[in-house]
Amino acid sequence: MGLPETLEAMLGGPGRLRFIVQPLLAVALGIRDGRLDAAAGRPAYVFAVLFVTERRREALASGLKTLARPLFVAVLIDMVVQFLIFRSVRVWHAVLVGTALIALPYVAARGLANRISQRRQGRRGG
After folding, report:
1. Is residue 109 within 8 Å of 25, Cβ to Cβ?
2. How far apart are alpha carbons 105 and 23 in whole angstroms?
3. pTM above threshold 0.85
């Protein structure tokens, strides 16, 4: 059974609420960190990781520190759900699903929150 079939079975099985709760948690964490980035005058998260060499290590460390526990929980929950549905566990699928549910929404929300906060600060300050 491939990843698409696994996801289809998991969307209808036990634990499907996590497809809503985990991304919402990641978005909330991303908004918090994006606003903190803007207040500190730091560039958007993905931009800092990809293009600002002197900030790359700091940005990655910040993201990993925030996401370590939620990402671990997301992967663990996915493994438990896989076992309940399929009576087997594919760790690679759990890592992919956990990353998609946590890291992607976090990165998007952090960057957007940073940009929105910077624009609002610019209007107030200028």
Report:
1. no
2. 6
3. no
